[in-house]
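Entry 14. Structure prediction run on the chain below.
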Amino acid sequence: MPNSGVNAGEDDFEDGARWHVKDLAIFDYFSVGNALKDGDSIDATVSFNLSWAGEGTGLTIDDGSRFHFEGRKTTATAAWSAHEKGFRFHSDPSASTQHTNFALVGEERNGVFFSEDD
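Output returned:
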C-alpha cells in the first residue's frame, strides 16, 4: 500500500494517526481453511479508515535487547467496507457504536530494523 495512505502527527503523535485504504483488491476465499489451501476464491475489494486519537498516556516499552516502542496508549475507531459481485458490507462508521479495548500509536523499532543510533 502506498505511504500516502498513512497520516500521522509529529513524533509525539499529539494529532494521532490515520490509515486510509480505498478499494484494495483482494480475493474472498470464503473461509480461513479454504484460504490456507489457496482454494476457490472470487475478486473483491475492501476499504477502511482506522483512526487513533492523539490524546492518551505516554508509554515507553523497551526490552533492553532489540525492541523499543515510544508512543501513547489511546483510543481508536474503525470504519470498514467490502464489495464483491452480488454482495456488499459496511460497518457502522459512527464512533458512538465503537469501544476501544486497547490501542497504541507510536514508533517501534525491532529486529534488523533496531538501531541504537535512532
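The longest strand covers residues 17-28.
Filed with the rest of this week's runs.
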